Amino acid sequence: xxxxxxxxxxxxxxxxxxDNEPAAQKLNRNFRAFxxxxxxxxxxxxxxxIYAVVxxxxxxKVEHTMQSQLAQQDESLHRLRDxxxxxxxxxxxxxxxxxxxxxxxGKTQIDLRKARQMADQLAKEQKENAExxxxxxxxxxxxxxxxxxxxxxxxxxxxxxxxxxxTTKQDLASTRTELQRVIGDLGVQSGLVAHNREELAELxxxxxxxxxxxxxxxxxxxxxxxxxxALQLKKTDTKRQKYTLDLIADDRRIEKKDKNTNEPVQFYxxxxxxxxxxxxxxxxxDRIVGYISMPKQKQASVSGLEGSAQPAGSGS
Length: 316
Hints:
This protein is α+β, with helices and mostly antiparallel strands. It folds into two domains: 35-131; 189-314, Tick-borne Encephalitis virus Glycoprotein, domain 1, CATH 2.60.98. It contains five helices and ten strands; from the N terminus they run H-H-H-H-E-E-H-E-E-E-E-E-E-E-E. It has helices at 4-10, 15-147, 151-174, 176-179, 197-206, and strands at 181-183, 189-192, 209-217, 223-225, 229-237, 242-249, 252-260, 265-267, 276-284, 287-295. The strands form three sheets. The protein has a four-stranded antiparallel β-sheet, with helices on one face.
């Protein structure tokens, strides 16, 4: 009995199976390689996209920065041009001023030469005048020696002149009161006018009129005084020494405008033929000082004090 056929029939090998297994493995390896390549390509593409975005942002920032710098440079350039234009204008003005200064300097030099010429001429004239005066002085000295003999006669004449001066002084003293009589603002001959308190005291001693001193300030209401007289100061002019006031008497208001110091301001009151007078001796800012002069006939109608004025008998 032969054993060989039995062993061959128990373990036969499929030749097609042994040929297909290497092709499948090869195909799987190809698919794996392709997947790896595809993944790598995706990773590279993603990285390139991210890099492109980052690069684009950086480029935009750089572009924005460059535009800002260009704008600043343009602005600086405009300012520089404006300053250059202003500098050119200032330079032109300086040139004009320089030209004007040169002209003035030329005129000044001409004036200086003229002044020097005038100074030389004046010095020459002064020298000539000094020589002339020297000659005249010599002549006067000679004349003095020749007139020494007439001194005695001149002394007697001087004595006569002194006597005449003494007589003139006496005449002036006698006419002093007449010189103090002036014409008032109404054209009427005034009584004696006192220029200060000492002269006013002398007038009181004469007893011809009644005198009331006042110190009147500028107020809204008139100030009342004796004899039914009220005064209201309106304004003063210390530079020109003038004043304006309103006087109220016998229910009448009279404006006395731009009156001077020591000028008799006259007005008539009922029952008097002689005017009452106001004399201002001192003028200050919004204030006057003086006196009221009333005729004696008015004294009978005086009913007492009505203000700050003081009568002659009060010793003020």
